[in-house]
Amino acid sequence: xxxxxxxxxxxxxxxxxxxxxxxxxxxxxxxxxxxxxxxxxxxxxxxxxxxxxxxxxxxxxxxxxxxxxxxxxxxxxxxxxxxxxxxxxxxxxxxxxxxxxxxxxxxxxxxxxxxxxxxxxxxxxxxxxxxxxxxxxxxxxxxxxxxxxxxxxxxxxxxxxxxxxxxxxxxxxxxxxxxxxxxxxxxxxxxxxxxxxxxxxxxxxxxxxxxxxxxxxxxxxxxxxxxxxxxxxxxxxxxxxxxxxxxxxxxxxxxxxxxxxxxxxxxxxxxxxxxxxxxxxxxxxxxxxxxxxxxxxxxxxxxxxxxxxxxxxxxxxxxxxxxxxxxxxxxxxxxxxxxxxxxxxxxxxxxxxxxxxxxxxxxxxxxxxxxxxxxxxxxxxxxxxxxxxxxxxxxxxxxxxxxxxxxxxxxxxxxxxxxxxxxxxxxxxxxxxxxxxxxxxxxxxxxxxxxxxxxxxxxxxxxxxxxxxxxxxxxxxxxxxxxxxxxxxxxxxxxxxxxxxxxxxxxxxxxxxxxxxxxxxxxxxxx
Length: 527
Description:
Elements: H1 7-16, H2 38-50, E1 55-58, H3 63-78, E2 84-86, H4 99-103, E3 109-113, H5 120-128, E4 132-136, E5 150-152, H6 168-183, H7 193-202, H8 209-224, H9 228-236, H10 244-261, H11 265-271, H12 276-305, E6 315-320, H13 327-338, E7 342-348, E8 351-357, H14 364-369, E9 375-380, E10 384-390, H15 394-406, E11 418-422, H16 430-438, E12 449-464, E13 470-477, E14 480-486, E15 498-510, E16 513-525
Helix pairs in contact: 2-6, 3-6, 3-7, 3-11, 7-8, 7-10, 9-12, 10-11, 10-12, 11-12, 12-13
């Protein structure tokens, strides 16, 4: 029996991931009225539209919140309403709907998207001002819910929507579907599926079942889209086709950068662009902010590396006045680099604001909850969370969290990379690329497949990148040539060296030619 994986075995392993999926097509998607409070909310919005009431939508400054705001506001505009959209500024307003925001609103109906489930004080002020507050959110509800007119959240008690792990944009999209039904109007909500798929991937939702269906359809829609915002990105970055990784590494970071560095309303207006000239102008501003974000992120990442104890099970670092807009990305990079959960704090005066990212099956929000007596506030979901804490509590918080995470089973700290096994180089061809592509999109609960090859000889090597931090390798094994690249390499491979490596496989498109390319994740230089 061969020690190498065959294509048939790879296909069977990946197929098993989806054997329990309940939703496998658009026609099988669950009914919007399975959400608790959905019917009540849809009737209230229908009444507002018929009575020409002004509606205010309050969003969030990340990709999910921006797209949630766009979907619901654009839908309402197209059916005759003129909603006002408020996306709080990360630096001056803080997160989500707040008392300060409600104080400025004089309308009778406020709808939150991708936030609000913890907005106790804002909800009380709405009641005082006779504002009906409809909260649409997907984050884990606290023990005490806000006293809102209605709450639409799949994770709240007595909500019968059958798939809980959806993002805020999906809740907003379902809300639009319910309003459409209540008003008995004709409207194709699939026109938003391109943006919806971006929100699902960007917010790190599980790419199984319902989410998988929407993202697969959404990726096709992105590549056929006439939306000028997406066309301008294709033009700017010379992209003919977008894949699921382009959402994670191009589209999401771009849209996120406005909220991280300035105001997320810039990305919102970019999505609303009416012509290509307007889209190009706004995109250039976003690109400039994204470049600034990259520089600051790189500096903080390098600074944080100097503070890390590699023996600890969880990475927790902090620094004075670290840019709050990038600490989440730094946490994500640290989690990937060390294969451990990571929390990065920015200290300002006596308050530490933190952003957390997880790996594998570790529920970072539940882990943070174990220290709730030390925390001023927190929120999020399994894979990512935010929190704030007094500066003097940080050392105790770090120590206690380390003790709690050590109690977890060791399986949580095995590599989060899904290594399927060792593969023969001759199996790496276009047929394998087609098999792997068929099981996209990869992400949460459907991790990208990784493989092993041992004893490959380095024939050529070249350093790439503006920062000289990537290494391109031409490898030979069994008289076969393998093209590979090691991004942000830690170990430099020299010509003639033999290596063992863990890698994923991608399509390399260059001057009209497509070839398989190995993306090295880990490398072992043989002595």
